[in-house]
Amino acid sequence: MVSQITNRFAGLKGQEAPRALFDRQLVWIALGLMLTGLVMVASASFPVSLRLTGQPFYFMFKHAALLGLALFVSAFVVQVPLHKWLHYSTHLLVLSIVLLLVVLLAGKSVNGASRWIPLGVFNLQPAEIAKFSLFIFMAGYLVRKQEEVRQTFFGGFMKPIIVFGCLATLLLGQPDLGTVIVMLVTVFGLLFVAGAKLWQFLALVMVGVAGVVLLIIIEPYRMRRMTSFWDPWEDPFGSGYQLTQSLMAFGRGEWFGQGLGNSIQKLEYLPEAHTDFVFAVVAEELGFVGVTLILMLIFALVVKAIFIGKRAFESGEQFGGYLGFGIGIWFAFQSMVNVGAAAGIVPTKGLTLPLISYGGSSLIVMTAAVSVLLRIDHECRLKGNGIQVKEQNDDEEE
């Protein structure tokens, strides 16, 4: 009996561990960010949750439920082959446009902005779906029209810009300039990756920057955000209040922070402490060391997305390559804007910190985006092992 057990363990020792067909590091990075977000939302939302509901952990339990829903959705998304996303990319874009129209006609208004469709369990924000849908559509478009994008301006280069313009018009009606800027930067990045001519790219960037400046000038509240960004201490109890409170949180954090749960600014001083400005609470409670670790996790996630996109191109999976790069640019720029706004580096834009901030739509859509990255990597590994993903006839015709 003892000899049989010994022989069995000896046999296991001699066998090589099976190769994983997905990126385990990406899974752990994403889960790490999600768990960090759950802890920080619980800490940052404690005072406002107690005031609004009488329950100190109301927003924490709700965020946990949304996190569970996000993981359930991602478990479904990761099973969808890439050729299905390619085939239905236009359908997803049309669905996003319909949802944006619905939110303009019958959306829920909060703080003067109509961005949500109430669904009972949570409020759906179509802008998050529109972002992801646009990037999927762009990846499919660049696969089909790559040569046109590289050779012609009005034929291949301008068509996706027109599509972006339609979405931007609907988003500005909410209004939601932050999402428009994230879309614009990601679309520009994808066009650059696709090999658009440099003069076309630079000309479009200049037009885009001019358009954003014009949109800021014509809206008084956006101008107030800009002026408060330039000198928040000029009006610390008015237009600069949110930023000055955020900067105080950063200052109190020092190297190692005040300790988890010991933030002062979250005690009704810093507005939106568990949503847009959760990073300020992170800085105050966990200090420079905690901020650095979280930024390293986000950076690792972005690098993973870029490398997955690169591997997809090398495997001949053009759609997965563009989509991987698009998700990487999206996560990187949105994180930069959120962190920059909290630290006073860029104007406040109301964008969530990926996988960390409180918000159902953002959490679900970004978790789904990570699942798509896992699917891209999975199919590239299958190709590397000589296994082809089965495609339906209608997808081959597309």
From TrEMBL:
Pfam families: FTSW_RODA_SPOVE. It catalyses: [GlcNAc-(1->4)-Mur2Ac(oyl-L-Ala-gamma-D-Glu-L-Lys-D-Ala-D-Ala)](n)-di-trans,octa-cis-undecaprenyl diphosphate + beta-D-GlcNAc-(1->4)-Mur2Ac(oyl-L-Ala-gamma-D-Glu-L-Lys-D-Ala-D-Ala)-di-trans,octa-cis-undecaprenyl diphosphate = [GlcNAc-(1->4)-Mur2Ac(oyl-L-Ala-gamma-D-Glu-L-Lys-D-Ala-D-Ala)](n+1)-di-trans,octa-cis-undecaprenyl diphosphate + di-trans,octa-cis-undecaprenyl diphosphate + H(+). PROSITE patterns: FTSW_RODA_SPOVE (PS00428). InterPro entries: Cell_cycle_FtsW-rel_CS (IPR018365), FtsW (IPR013437), FtsW/RodA (IPR001182). PANTHER family: CELL CYCLE PROTEIN, PEPTIDOGLYCAN GLYCOSYLTRANSFERASE FTSW-RELATED. It is an enzyme of class 2 (transferase). HAMAP family: PGT_FtsW_proteobact. It is found in: Cell inner membrane; Cell membrane. GO terms for cellular component: cell division site; plasma membrane. One of its GO terms (molecular function) is lipid-linked peptidoglycan transporter activity. Its EC number is 2.4.99.28. Pathway: Cell wall biogenesis; peptidoglycan biosynthesis. Belongs to the SEDS family. FtsW subfamily. It is a multi-pass membrane protein. The lineage of its organism: Bacteria, Pseudomonadati, Pseudomonadota, Gammaproteobacteria, Vibrionales. Keywords: Cell cycle, Cell division, Cell inner membrane, Cell membrane, Cell shape, Cell wall biogenesis/degradation, Glycosyltransferase, Membrane, Peptidoglycan synthesis, Transferase, Transmembrane, Transmembrane helix. One of its GO terms (biological process) is peptidoglycan biosynthetic process. Peptidoglycan polymerase that is essential for cell division. NCBIfam families: ftsW, PRK10774.1. This is Probable peptidoglycan glycosyltransferase FtsW. The chain crosses the membrane at residues 26-46, 58-78, 85-106, 126-143, 152-171, 177-194, 201-218, 286-307, 319-343, 355-374.
